[in-house]
TrEMBL record:
The keyword Ubl conjugation does not apply. Its cofactor is pyridoxal 5'-phosphate. Keywords: Pyridoxal phosphate. The lineage of its organism: Bacteria, Thermotogati, Deinococcota, Deinococci, Deinococcales. It comes from Deinococcus knuensis. This is Cystathionine beta-lyase.
């Protein structure tokens, strides 16, 4: 895994020497180093209190003004949320982070923190269906203009810029067709024109790609996916500079998109194994893609690790640690294939669990898109999205081959 610097807290009286830790180590430790009473509890307790008491008005004023980061009211954040924010800022390599009640809350707060009526956004047409709906339907109601482009075509992106363009928004690996925008090139284009680059990194996770290292200004995730990893916690996160996080936090607090203490706590438990899980997800997904692409009943496989992927060389450069566990496949008679997998691999409209699941983008994640737009993008009724888990690869391949041969 990629090495990431973190200061050494065990050098009192001297400047802390930087220590190079593997991401697997950081995922297990990050965020909790500032927690009080470490000797009392190895795992942080869940702080379910909705409000906190203060000794006097001065203490309360320091908390309310932000001078003292103490918790005072649940909507403004809990100790569990603060721990998760520290951890995710460390893993994504940004100065700060903001956790939210959902991935969409995080994206909304990130964008609304820097946009106003009259501004313009450029976005990839291949973004997640609810993100598409947010940008296509809700933002115009707020007076924010949006242009949808093929973000893998830099000329098309460049032609879409206007004097009032403030943000370019893409996904590091698009959902569900796994295209790979050139994040460093997009960052240069945006910055040359005074705009910000926003990257949804949900499909990758910081274990395999860190957009901020390549120039991204706003990095978002649905934490219910790879960051927590077990389909048991819900939330979102924005990782960015302290200044951009502060703008987003103001919007989030006013809109009420708070993450629960329990979901923040559960995400921290899953985060500790992120590095280990992503190695298994990535290796298994590559193996499944290599088998499916040669099966006569599979019409197409979408995975960046296949040599015929349109951005194969770029993907190999940007994702040296692997591509995560996602792939999609256009399968002959998809409904029959899904029935053949019943009892082995669940049909579930989400992703990134430790077990392998299937999803149907046509009727779930991209249902908000008009049918002609879905077909134009290559999202057909026979396209299935596969979230490959960490199971034994022999067992997984046996399940898929048996279903295809049924």
């Amino acid at each position: 895994m990629r090495n990431v610097s973190q200061s050494n807290p065990d050098a009192p009286g001297e400047p802390a020497a930087p220590v190079k830790y593997d991401l697997t180590t950081l995922a297990a430790r990050a965020g909790e180093e500032a927690r009080p009473n470490r000797a009392a509890a190895l795992v942080e307790p869940i702080y379910q209190s909705t409000v906190y008491a203060f000794a006097d008005l001065d203490d309360l004023d320091r908390a309310m003004s932000g001078e003292d980061p103490a918790s005072f009211y649940y909507r403004n954040g809990t100790p569990n949320a603060a721990t998760l924010e520290r951890a995710l800022a460390t893993l994504e390599g940004t100065g700060a982070a903001l956790v939210a009640g959902s991935g969409m809350a995080a994206i909304s707060a990130a964008l609304l923190g820097v946009l106003k009526a009259g501004d313009h956004v450029i976005t990839d047409a291949r973004v997640y269906g609810v993100t598409y709906a947010l940008l296509a339907e809700e933002f115009p109601r707020l007076g924010i203009e949006v242009s949808f482009v093929d973000a893998c075509d830099l000329n098309e992106v460049e032609d879409a810029f206007r004097p009032n363009t403030r943000v370019v928004h893409v996904e590091s690996l698009t959902n569900p067709l796994l295209t790979v925008p050139d994040v460093p090139a997009l960052a240069r284009l945006a910055h040359e024109r005074g705009a910000l680059l926003s990257v949804d990194n949900t499909f990758a996770s910081p274990a395999v790609f860190r957009p901020a290292e390549h120039g991204a200004d706003l990095v978002t995730h649905s934490v219910s996916k790879y960051l927590s990893g077990h389909s048991s916690a819900f939330g979102g996160v924005l990782c960015a500079s302290p200044e951009l996080v502060a703008l987003a936090r103001t919007r989030l607090l006013r809109l009420g998109g708070t993450i629960s203490a329990f979901d923040a706590w559960m995400t921290m438990q899953g985060l500790k194994t992120l590095g280990l899980r992503m190695r298994a997800h990535s290796g298994n997904a590559q193996a499944v893609a290599d088998v499916l692409v040669n099966h006569p009943r599979v019409k197409a496989v979408y995975h960046p690790g296949l040599s015929d992927h349109p951005q194969f060389h770029l993907a190999m450069d940007l994702f040296p640690q692997g591509f995560g566990g996602m792939l999609s496949a256009d399968i002959e008679d998809a409904p029959r294939f899904v029935r053949a997998l019943a009892g082995r691999i669940p049909l579930a409209p989400s992703l990134a669990d430790v077990i392998t699941t299937l999803s149907w983008p046509w009727g779930t994640s991209h249902r908000p898109l008009p049918e002609p737009e879905r077909r134009r993008l290559g999202i057909t009724p026979n396209l299935l999205r596969l979230s490959i888990g960490i199971e034994d690869i022999g067992d997984l391949l046996g399940d898929f081959e048996a279903a295809l041969d049924a």
